[in-house]
């Protein structure tokens, strides 16, 4: 399982689409209010962990069973 933070942004969504296209199991950590537009149909092909990278508890929960993390989230 791969975890991607920032998956709803420009760079993160491109990464997620590529990983899913390669057949990888992907979980994204996103805020409940995040728009999924940039993910398109790929939004339905990934696991969603709701939370925020600034909340350690949700990060720890999202990382359960994860072997690789791509941290692409940024403060805007």
Which terms summarize this structure?
76 residues, alpha/beta, four-stranded parallel sheet, 2 helices, 4 strands, 25% helix, globular
Furnish the topology, listing elements before pairings.
Blueprint: E1 2-5, H1 10-21, E2 26-30, E3 47-50, H2 56-62, E4 68-71
The tally of beta strands, per DSSP, is 4
Low confidence ranges? none
For the termini, the CA-CA separation is: 27 Å
For the largest beta-sheet, the strand count, sense and barrel status come to: 4 strands, parallel
Strand content: 15-25%
Mean pLDDT: 95
**How many DSSP helices?**
2
Physical arrangement of strands within the biggest beta sheet? 3-2-1-4
| Strand/helix succession | EHEEHE
Spatial extent as radius of gyration: 11 Å
Structural class: alpha/beta
Can you characterise this structure?
The structure is a single chain. The protein has 76 residues and is α/β, with parallel strands linked by helices. The chain has helices at residues 10-21, 56-62; strands spanning 2-5, 26-30, 47-50, 68-71. The protein has a four-stranded parallel sheet, with helices on both faces. The longest helix is centred in the first third of the chain and has 12 residues, at 10-21. The N and C termini lie far apart (27 Å). The model has no long low-confidence stretch (mean pLDDT 95).
